[in-house]
């Protein structure tokens, strides 16, 4: 009986602590990912695009040559003086600029996303050794996909937007993905870091998925799912492979903001 009373005495404050911790975690927006995870071997069984986002584990196709070629030191040694095309990181990617790759990587992300410039696009000269994902259907055949290369510093990312289906891979660093099945209320010029820090904790409607993607994982994103991204490491290299959605009427990767349905 004495032991039971002692345990009961401890249970109350511990229970309160659990509630407090849960509230803090919820307010910070770092909810459990909850996304379905499959083995890399499952890709061969995908005859058509899945209807929900999924994470493919142990995807190793680009962990060798491409990962080595895109290490910060190697990338800057080979391409640091090359001029790269940049676009704004807001929902519309509407502003363009250019600068040397070395200069771009020396900048820290700051300001609203319509004022922050981002390197992400079909830079073929940076994608040469990249192996795009292969599945069990023609929708992701080599001649049906378009790949885009990105590199960025921490706290950068792209505001909420939607487009066709595809795969995303983080080769170096880590990237946070926030998914909504239907369009959320958002400011298209608000950067994702500010959204995560100041807006997300106040929302009653949470993202359907809130996940971090790291090297060795491949994310599949279905068409028309709204998402925002946030780069987490000081140096992040990532590639998205956009597929041809049958009967969609849009080119692979076309934003629904720029090509309305």
Number of strands: 12
The H-and-E topology, N to C, reads as: HEEHHEEHEHEEEHEEEE
Computed over alpha carbons, the radius of gyration is 20 Å
Q: How far from one another are the termini?
A: 68 Å
Outline the low-pLDDT stretches: 2-31, 246-251, 254-261
Mean pLDDT: 84
Q: Fraction of residues in helices? A: 10-25%
Strand content: 25-35%
Indicate the overall shape.
globular
Largest sheet: 9 strands, mixed
* Category from helices, strands and their pairing: alpha+beta
Count of helical regions: 6
Biggest sheet strand line-up:
1-2-10-7-12-6-5-3-4
Question: How would you describe what is shown here?
Answer:
The chain is of the alpha+beta class and 261 residues long. The chain contains six helices and twelve strands. The strands form two sheets. Strands 1-2-10-7-12-6-5-3-4 form a nine-stranded mixed sheet. It has a three-stranded antiparallel sheet with strand order 9-8-11, with no helix packed on it. A hairpin with a 7-residue loop joins strand 3 and strand 4 (96-100). It is globular, with a radius of gyration of 20 Å. It starts with a helix and ends in an 18-residue tail after the last strand. Residues 2-31, 246-251 and 254-261 have low confidence and may be disordered.
């Amino acid at each position: 009986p004495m032991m039971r009373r002692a345990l009961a005495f401890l249970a109350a404050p511990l229970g309160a602590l659990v509630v407090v911790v849960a509230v803090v975690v919820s307010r910070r927006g770092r909810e459990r990912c909850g996304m379905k995870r499959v083995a890399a071997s499952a890709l061969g069984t995908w005859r058509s695009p899945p209807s929900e986002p999924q994470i493919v584990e142990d995807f190793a196709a680009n962990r060798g040559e491409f990962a080595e070629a895109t290490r910060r030191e190697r990338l800057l040694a080979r391409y640091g003086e090359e001029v790269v095309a940049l676009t704004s990181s807001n929902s519309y990617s509407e502003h363009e600029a250019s600068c040397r790759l070395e200069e771009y990587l020396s900048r820290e992300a700051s300001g609203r996303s319509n004022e922050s410039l981002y390197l992400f696009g079909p830079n073929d000269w940076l994608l040469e050794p990249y192996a795009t994902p292969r599945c069990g259907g023609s929708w992701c055949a080599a001649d049906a996909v378009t790949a885009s290369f990105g590199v960025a510093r921490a706290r950068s990312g792209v505001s909420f937007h939607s487009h066709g289906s595809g795969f995303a891979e983080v080769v170096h660093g880590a990237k946070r993905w926030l998914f909504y099945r239907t369009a959320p209320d958002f400011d298209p010029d608000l950067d994702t870091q500010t959204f995560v820090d100041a807006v997300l904790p106040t929302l009653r409607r949470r993202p359907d998925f809130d996940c971090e993607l790291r090297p060795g994982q491949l994310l599949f994103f279905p068409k028309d799912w709204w998402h925002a991204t946030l780069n987490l490491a000081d140096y992040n290299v990532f590639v998205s492979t956009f597929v041809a959605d049958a009967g969609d009427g849009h080119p692979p990767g076309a934003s629904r903001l720029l090509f309305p349905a």
